[in-house]
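To: structure subgroup
Subject: Chain for Friday's discussion

All,

I'm putting the inputs and outputs inline so they're searchable in the archive.
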Amino acid sequence: MSTDQDLLTDGRLTDGLLAHPYAVYDRLRDTAPVYRVTGPDGSPAWLVTRYDDVREALANPLLSLDKRHALPGGYKGFALPPALDANLLNMDPPDHTRIRRLVGRAFTTRRVEQLRAPIRRTADHLLDVLGTSGGPHGSTDLIAAYAAPLPITVICDLLGVPDGHRRDFRAWTDVLVAPDPARPQAAKEAVVAMLGFFTQLLAAKRKEPADDLLSDLIAVRDEGGREGSDRLSEDELMSLAFLILFAGYENTVQLIGTAVLALLQHPDQLAALRADPSRLPAAVEEFVRYDGPALLAIRRFPREDVTIGDVTVPAGETVLLSLAAANRDPRRFPDADRFDLGRDATGHLALGHGIHYCLGAPLARLETEIALAALLERLPDLKLDGDPGDLRWRPSLRARGLLALPVTY
């Protein structure tokens, strides 16, 4: 049996956690639910793993997302230029409230539901291509052929991103989410490329506005809201476009992939869902609880000394809230390591809690529901191709997801 030290050597997050996240979290919840760790960049942080502690901290206004509250030398996450850094993941009220109000109207459940038919058409098109290339029987990497192109198509259509740039954006995102230690310059190059991309895209939309979300946001920026109260700065506009595109793609591709894997590894649950597809919306909640796309919430910095559990975290130190650990806490979800589509998974924290609850949650839920519905209908004999132990996971603490999902159909 592995020990805590085997799984989390000297408190380093990257040693063991990527390969065995839930084994690490199980031990920490029982022995050190607020644990001093070393972040991916070598800086110190506090890792919180119990459901009640994580939920309370997510809604605690004393825990700031603004990096100006961080002590020098602490873990701060992404290093982005100002034109991409002025986004909701780095903001507290009132700026967070102002910007979220501007874009939130595009992601209400009612507005997102209007995308159901276009999303289904995209899913069917991708499966048509799969059938054309492989015939009635074949094999493929379901991430590359389906789980990745579906959300990038949906979010790019929503924003108004031209087709020719979508593959580039996927490549840049992959570099940022899971940097390659052998290519230290790759992440910087990806940021420069994305900055240039968004600069050109905004200029093109200003010249020729269209019926898309980005054109609407540009109008807000250039015309201002009522009495200027809702005005966006240029950096906020570009950062918002970056966040919507980045998060709208990255989180959903990982969620679709892990959901399909969970079903293929639990044939009884798959059979029950095939027998009653109306259970899919509720099933999505168990997918995100059981193996959601984010191991950790965005880092936070106490404005003043704050007590989490029975530990006092000094002002300015970095706090990492483990959504994945909270969602497997047996104190909140009985038999939490069991995948069970009959479970009441409401109350999970996979999409956050409080004022920073995931803006795109309704869209992520709908895309996952439709992606799985189309697969269940059109690929009735879908199976894993190979040993599950050979599956490779993205080497990232930012997004938990498969590098590939080989299947036969």
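Points worth raising on Friday:
The radius of gyration is 21 Å.
The mean pLDDT is 89.

D.
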